[in-house]
Structures are given as C-alpha cells and as structure tokens.
Amino acid sequence: xxxxxxxxxxxxxxxxxxxxxxxxxxxxxxxxxxxxxxxxxxxxxxxxxxxxxxxxxxxxxxxxxxxxxxxxxxxxxxxxxxxxxxxxxxxxxxxxxxxxxxxxxxxxxxxxxxxxxxxxxxxxxxxxxxxxxxxxxxxxxxxxxxxxxxxxxxxxxxxxxxxxxxxxxxxxxxxxxxxxxxxxxxxxxxxxxxxxxxxxxxxxxxxxxxxxxxxxxxxxxxxxxxxxxxxxxxxxxxxxxxxxxxxxxxxxxxxxxxxxxxxxxxxxxxxxxxxxxxxxxxxxxxxxxxxxxxxxxxxxxxxxxxxxxxxxxxxxxxxxxxxxxxxxxxxxxxxxxxxxxx
Amino acid sequence: xxxxxxxxxxxxxxxxxxxxxxxxxxxxxxxxxxxxxxxxxxxxxxxxxxxxxxxxxxxxxxxxxxxxxxxxxxxxxxxxxxxxxxxxxxxxxxxxxxxxxxxxxxxxxxxxxxxxxxxxxxxxxxxxxxxxxxxxxxxxxxxxxxxxxxxxxxxxxxxxxxxxxxxxxxxxxxxxxxxxxxxxxxxxxxxxxxxxxxxxxxxxxxxxxxxxxxxxxxxxxxxxxxxxxxxxxxxxxxxxxxxxxxxxxxxxxxxxxxxxxxxxxxxxxxxxxxxxxxxxxxxxxxxxxxxxxxxxxxxxxxxxxxxxxxxxxxxxxxxxxxxxxxxxxxxxxxxxxxxxxx
DNA sequence: TTGAAAGCGCTAACAC
DNA sequence: GTGTTAGCGCTTTCAA
Lengths: 342, 342
Known about the structure:
2 copies of one chain form a homodimer.
Chain A: H1 10-17, H2 21-28, H3 38-51, H4 57-64, E1 69-74, H5 82-93, E2 99-104, H6 109-121, E3 126-129, H7 137-144, E4 149-152, E5 163-166, H8 168-181, E6 186-191, H9 197-211, E7 217-222, H10 228-241, E8 248-251, H11 254-266, E9 276-281, E10 294-297, H12 300-317, E11 324-327, E12 330-332
Parallel strand pairs in A: 1-2, 1-3, 3-4, 4-5, 5-11, 6-7, 6-8, 8-9, 9-10
Antiparallel strand pairs in A: 10-12
Helix pairs in contact in A: 1-2, 1-3, 2-3, 5-12, 6-7, 8-9, 10-11
Chain B binds a DNA duplex through helix 2 and helix 4.
C-alpha cells in the first residue's frame, strides 16, 4: 500500500457531497448542524460515511485549542487500587468525547516532571492527579500555567485544587469500633509514608478513635511504602521487637494488610486467632485472600467518576474552586477479624 | 486569570531569542540541531527554558502527520491481567516520546467500533490490540486503512498482523505433567469461551498432553467467560452434575481458578486435599489466594514491551509483516496442587 | 547558517 | 443556508 494512512479529509467529503468544506464541518458537528439545510446535511453525512471519514482531532484541536484529552497521573497502574479509579474516570470521559492520557510516575519526581511536560505538550484540557509527592514544583508550575486539575485521594498541599477522597476518618473509626467490640485492647495502626496526605489523615483518625474508646490503647508505626512487601517487613519488625504483641492491626491499605498476613503466617501466628487484621480500600481480591480480608470499602470507581465530573465542569466553566468531596466508605467484615485472644 | 492556558508558542521563543521561528524549530529538535550555529542554539534553548516553552504536539502532529500516540485496546483494565501489560507497553513507549491512549471495550462490538473511531480520529500511529471479538469489522477496516497494529494474546484471524503471546502449549503441558506426577488421573480443563483464540490453543494443548500421558484422562468444559464468577458457576455445575469428580482442574486463567476455589469451598471440598487446582497467567494476587495458586507464569509486562517494540519498528519501517512471538512461560508450584486423593 | 513562505486539516468570522 | 477567508502552531522546502 502506498501512502495508505487514513487520508480522507474534510475536503474529500466536501467535493463528494458537492458543498464547501465549511458546510461539511457544520453538518457534522452537533452544535452547528441546525445551521444547515436538512437535505444537505444528509448528503454530507452520506458522503462522510461512504468515504469512511473520521475528522482529524489534531487539526480540530489546533483550531479550537481544545484537545479533548485529560491527563491522568498515577504512581503505578499495577497497584490494584488504581485500575478501578482509571476506569471510573474513563467511564465518565468516553461518552463525552474525551480521552484519558495515562502517566505512571513510580513516585519519582523526575518522571513526574517528564510526564507532566509530555501531557502539557499534548495540551490536555485538564489533569486528574492521584500521585504522591507531586506537591512540589511540577504541580505548582501546572497551577501557575492555569491548568485545571482535580486531586484524587491526595490533597494538593497549598494549591487550591479540588480533592476527591474517601471518608478516611469514618472508615478508621468503624474499624476501631469493630475491633473494640470484639474485645481488642491493644491495636496497632501501620500507617503509610508521611508524605502521602492520606497517611496522616488516617493515623490522626486512628488516634482519635482509640482515645475516645474506653480501654483501647492504640499505637502507630509507619511503613516505608503502601505495598505488600513493606507491610510484611513492618509486621516482621513489630513481631520481633515488641514485647506486648498487638491483638489487632489496622493496615494503611489492603496491600499492607496482605503483607501483614504473610508475616503472621511466617511467624506461625494465626489470623484471626492470634491477631486480627483490617485493611483499607477493599481491592477486588480482598475477598479471596487467606483469610478473606475485613476491610474498609472505598468506592474507587465512583471516586474516579466524580473526579472526572468535577474536572469537566471546571473546564466547561473555565474556572475552578477548591472543594473537597468525601465519598462515604463502609466496613466490610470478613474472616480476618475475630474475638481478641484470652 | 484571563486566557491563562499554556500560551507560549514558538514565535514567543523566536522573538526572545532574536531569531526566526524556523531556527527555533531546528534548534529544539535533536534531528536538526546540527544545522544551527551552536551559539544560536544555546540562546534558543535558554529562551525556551525561561519562557517554559513546551511545543504543541497537535500542531507538530498536524504538520508531520505523526501523532506520536499508540492506541491500546483492551477489554477491561479492571481485569488484573491487563495492568501489567499496559505498563509494559508504556515502559517502552514513554522514553521514546510516544503516549498510549487506552480504550476499554468490555468485549462489546459497539464499544470497540466507537473506541477505534475515536483512536483513528486522534490519528494514532499504531494499535496494540488485546481485545477479543475484534476480528470482525472494526479491525478489518483498520487494516484496510493501512493502520499498523500488533495483536496481544489474541490472534487477528485472517489479518496479517503480528502476534505476541505466551507459549500456551508448553505451559499447559507442564501443568498436566505436574499433576500426573502427583498421581492425578482424572483432570478437568475449564476452557475460556471459544471466540478467544487462546481458549482453543490451550484446550488443544490440554488434550494433546493428556493423551500423550499414560493413564491420564482429560475432559474439557467451557466457561462462559474468563472471570471468577464464571469459574465458580462452571465448577458448581461440574460438582453437582458429574458422577466421577475430577481430582484436578486446570483453569483457563487465574480468575477462573479463583472461582473454582470458591466453588470447592462452598461444596465443603478442600484444595488440594480433594481437588488440586492450576491457574494460568500468574496474576499478582495468585500468591495470596487461599490456598496460594499453582499457576503458569506468563511474562505479562514483557508481552506488553515486546508488542510495543514490534509496533514501533513497523511504524519506523513503514511496513509490517505477520509474525508470531511466543514468550516462554513457566509453571509456578504453590499450595493449590497436591497428591491425588487415594 | 538563517529567513521567508507554504501548508498540514480543521473551525469560526464574516460575507452574500 | 452556504461560501470565502483567515489562522490555530508547527515543520520543511526553497532561497539567500
């Protein structure tokens, strides 16, 4: 094939329909279709169909300065927390003609910077940011450039961007109450790294819930990351170093909880017989772990959808204001929590 | 802010550097930098840096008819099989200046069509297709339009597109051998729907492996989908309808295997005591299931990387040929397989 | 080594 | 209701 690539342009359609290309443009765009004679419009549609015409989004975007794309910045698609969020975003974008451009940062500032430049070069109309340490330069620059953005699960520091998140405080409180009712008195919270805004929120909520619950003493340790590996290591350390073993653990998220389960197993401890474990997020496989994980369900798909909704609204209004949307969460009790050992 | 959005253009840089925009273009592109005086180039780079200039990819793409984007078509990002593949693709694309545009089809032909049109409208330079029933019209049209594509884990039917896949046959054979060595004689294969090319490949490999293994009798049933739910249902049906219960099951993939585990549990059967189970793919969670899943490890990240590599090569050469890359797989033995019951 | 000019494919003012 | 014209921001001949 010589020069085969989707070459049919608006001029091709125009000459086949016997009209000017401006008319084709009007006929093919919903917003301007009423300006053109119904018969002509039909002829144009027919010609476009026959030629397999697909408008060139780059040309359109260049003209309208509107790329109809949204940049989505996440740490790592491979983390099971993010795929539902991304799908939630896309579910909202797709029927509205927008496409998501995905950028994984692996929590590296260098990659964040490069990704952001790549997205800005593609002239994304807005950003959904679920990545961690982005507070700093990159996001600040984006804000100064007037880029619309919505934060997801991580606040924007001092930048006045909207934030969509789960209600961490009530989730943690529900977990503490659940454990207290099962008779647990020594509860450990394995928090995520301090540079994630959720880590602090959850740890604070944990301390508050413990101190307002009679007889419960809460301790907080920090994991180096929100991963299975980090959860495993942190729990190993707790089990070897501490004299008074906690009877229950509330993990910073489900991955950390899975790591805790592994650690317990390798130390010959049973869950929930010796130690109860609660996760956070309710990733898809929480119900298939061993034992099935009691966890705080966070509506991840909806978080994505909501973030996309708020972003498109800002784009349409050409203005945005700070705003925090806290979606309700709920404790899902499964097999990893049980009565405190006697 | 009035009119704030990334407005600095090549002309702004040109006037600040006191040169013509053509010179800026040459100075800023690696391929043409040698055409311009080193001093001038430095001045241009400085001006660009100072203004925070990021070239407009749409304008460039319009001019060069090269969008530097790749369309990635998958059924559902939420299926844990796909995130590693997508990351593998992006890992290869990103350092080369390409961006992936993701499209979820939910295995619907209507959505596939719409997604493909959206991608073609954005003038993607190529396609990685990991979606199912795409054989039909949409992909054929793309091929006729001269669009480059690489299939991933699903062949393209009669279309001469390259295919990247795992070595299904050796994986299944290894699983059968492993089970035979454990003394299993009645092995069941729960295949995926027939319209996925991998389903047939694996089922055929299963039959071949069984008939070439002394004393082993293999049966194949088909699940309605490659999902936990479908695996659960299919196994339920097997357990209630069949008189001679298989002592081992090789599932079409890990999700189906997890469904089988659920079914066994709900029927009061133990794994691997009563029935051994083998999965396929080795999704990340396979090691944390109950029991940990013996499964065929497929290098999903590498499959993505390889597909991207082949695609960019085709784009660069402006030509592509059919070709099948079969990546090696390996059996990972965990807790879900054990000796056949006496 | 640099500048001038044309044009990628589209939409939006402005005519008629 | 439709055609004409201009121009979005870039790269790439062609001249100088």
